[in-house]
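Q: For a teaching handout, I want to show students what a protein-ligand complex looks like in token form. Below are the inputs, and the small molecule is dihydroflavine-adenine dinucleotide. Please produce the holo structure.
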Amino acid sequence: MVIEKQFADGLKSIARNLDIKEYIQQSPELYPLFQKSVKRFVTGESKEDGISIGDQLIHKGYRISLEFIGENTITKEECVRAKEEFIALMKECGNRGISSRISLDLSHIGLSVNPELAYESLLELAKVAQSNGLSLMISMEESAKTDQILSIYKRVVSEYSNVGVTLQAQLHRTLDDINELFNYSGAIRLVKGAYQEPSDICIPRSDKLDERYIQLVDLCVKANHQVSIASHDEVIYKQVIERGYLQNPNVEAEMLYGIRPDLSKKLKDDGLAVRVYLTYGVEWYLYLCHRIAEYPPNIYIAITDMIQG
Ligand code: FDA
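A: Here is the structure, written as tokens, with dihydroflavine-adenine dinucleotide included.
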């Protein structure tokens, strides 16, 4: 058991340090191979790819989230370009009558340049989302950014209730943060947390983390607060279903496109609300790195996809 855990930790550490972009830059001939493996997780490079697959999922009975991939954008020009892409995406959804949540990282639209830029961009995006009948969901990034992200969220949600924010169950602070966020009307997306954090601020993957996750869901339900159970973990869903939470109109399941499609289909076929999180963009290698880091067996799936095409 100890050896298995050490092996799994070793794989995770390799995956976390994987820089697919660097490999591709050094060996451009690998690009088409990586593109084959990424198709399972990313809809394509353009917003048309995301919208078209999203539309198909809506017709099958799912709700959707759409994200233009990007993070840690470090020049103002790139942040403005990202914001404009999100605006174009929302207008296209609005024109086609597609009801979607739009997901984004604040570091994609200015947080790494200047928090005020992220605030102003988010405010503008919230307005466009509202006029197109859409909602926004802010992703949660590494713990060094949590305070800034929550502070920008609170300022914007005070004006636009169609904005929500993601919280990570793995951080000890989340128990306080969630109670504070119940004072704001925006939806909460609850995740375990994808970032490797210092052990003094974080609960590692364990039964204890699963208990904390369920405790946080309990709090959301008691507070009548809108919450997305964003997980692929059957243990979590078993408990949530036993408590009857997925019948509650404030609660939905949310899963990443290409991950546990069997589970999302089963929940949806059982009549429960399931949202699929779709991504698109040319920076797909970032997304592939995250998916491999959080679940190293994905590396084998990626290699198999490359070989089998
Ligand atoms: P956990 O990692 O404990 O895995 C439990 C089981 O689920 C595994 O044994 C396996 O069966 C299955 N599983 C989990 N991940 C898998 C994968 N990639 N491929 C195949 N099977 C997998 N994180 C963050 O820090 N900030 C954020 O904003 C977001 N946003 C976000 C949105 C949505 C919609 C989802 C679903 C997830 C995120 N995440 C995130 C990622 C999240 O924090 C977490 O890393 C992953 O969801 C994996 O954790 P699980 O809860 O799925 O369980």
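A: Two things your students might notice: The chain is about 50% helix and 15% strand. The first strand starts at residue 63 and ends at 68.
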